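quick one
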Amino acid sequence: MYNTYPFTLEKLPYAYEALEPVIDAQTMMIHHDKHHQAYVDNLNKALEANPDLQKKTLEELLSSEVDVVKNNAGGVWNHDFFWKCMGQKGQMGEKLTLRLEKDFGSVAEFMAKFEAAALGRFGSGWAWLVKNKEGSLEIMSTANQDNPLRDGKTPILALDVWEHAYYLKYQNRRAEYAKQWWGVVDWTAVEARL
Ligand code: MN3
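structure w/ manganese (III) ion:
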């Protein structure tokens, strides 16, 4: 696990084709090997130019006042988290189900709200399920590579809605991508973050 400069790209925790047919292997390969790698490289480059920040952890860099550092730190953190939100195909456990019912009324309502956050994000960004300081679950979206930790919220689940995440297969159909995506969410990993 990376912690401080110099950062390295973490391996994808499953094969490129593991999420087929929801997310195609080519998208996964480009997304991880090119886009995610570029965030790692550009973060290291930005830190070379800002040696005073080299001792900071990745989480600390998410709130950096240096934009190029903040943006690329977010790109590294968010993608690492995103890969870990997917992979295992399985049913949602009882603990998470009850929690979503408590905070959103029903699992269907949670999913509808999450999809709306994914669709409503103008341009590039992320949809998130987060835990707030009071311990309740909330849905939010962030622009670009911004991260909820900056607002004191703990990420539980994230969906990348940058076009590079879905364009090869879904083109302009972000809503369809967001709906199909539920089929590859690793609910066990999500529940473990509660
Ligand atoms: Mn991405």
